[in-house]
Amino acid sequence: MNPETLSTLILLGSFIVMIILRFPIAYAVGISTVLCMSSMGQNLVTLPQQMVKGVWSFSLMAVPFFITMGVLMGSGGISDKLIALANSLVGWMRGGLAMVNIVASYFFGGISGSASADTASLGSILIPMMVDEGYDADFSTAVTITSSCEGLLVPPSHNMVIYATTAGGVSVGALFMAGYLPGALLALSLMIGSYIISVKRNYPKGAPFSLKTFGKQLLDSFWALAAVIIVVVGVVGGLFTATESAAIAVVYSLIVSVFIYKGITWKGVWESFDKCVETLAIVLILIAMSAAFGNCLTLLHVPAKAATLITTITSNPVIIILLLNVILLLLGMIMDMAPIILIATPILLPVAQSVGLHPIQFGIMMVLNCGIGLLTPPVGAVLFIGPRLPSAPWKRSSRLRFRSISA
Q1: What is the total count of domains within the chain?
Q2: Residues 402 and 364 grouped into a single domain
Q3: How do residues 261-274 score in pLDDT, each as one tens digit?
């Protein structure tokens, strides 16, 4: 066995073993990198250099801003407005609350960009509300967690920013625009499935559609939806960069949450910043560690070897694309989203490009597959958030709260 192959086995083997042993992902990435560098005889002084290089990016500054924007908007009473808007739009259908859940996730995902935030914020209202109206608890929870994946595709998504930075040379604005249609198709497919189940189980309908009510709720939700418009139009139109748009969105969300909707106090703002720092610490450590891990992959020519291995299995582009999807789905079952994007992109993107996939198309495919991974055991983060939400106190008060936000 040559030294390069041995170092590759040490890097990937130790990483997989630590994942199976449930090491924190940052430790698994860092330790496997150290072991690999030691086996190659590299000076470990280069490790912190690679870590700093990984986070030394102007584009990555958009990530903390988008996360802060999502936390502020999610804590500022935005979810109530968006649920009422979705109810006025699709609540009249059979299984109306399920449709409301799905459409509200599409709206809210465009603000938070996080499936976990979507599930926690909307699910804490909609799951008990659905149970109170006669929906089964398992169906209510399943609709909530699956629809939360829409938020990963609908801009602004900080995961797309991470992908664009990792892939190199990919336009964040183009990724944002590319996410709308797949997100809408995902929402439509979930609505069709929910409607079929609702008809079979005879779930209730909501109030008939009223153009006046819809117009009123749209007007009430304008300030929330405008945040997405500012970011997307600004980036796509070339008015400012993704980082600049994210910074503007933070200031805007602060003004809307505190002064317009008045859903959060200044004390709550500081608490939101605490949540942001905690989340950012995890994300940035992962990015730094993954940069060093990716450097080892490059030195060991792992991307080229992976491309050669996959193309030796088959030369059919369709089958290769299906294999890439299967690989991403399997990775999603054992890893969180950001590490998959950071580690798998340098390996799989060259393979995807070799069969004609555009980097933007592959990015959307990766984000969607990783989103599905959030719903699959043993690591599925969203899968474990949903079942904890329906509780007795919520069930007793949900109907009254629903009427108040729909008024």
Answers
A1: 2
A2: no
A3: 887 888 888 888 88
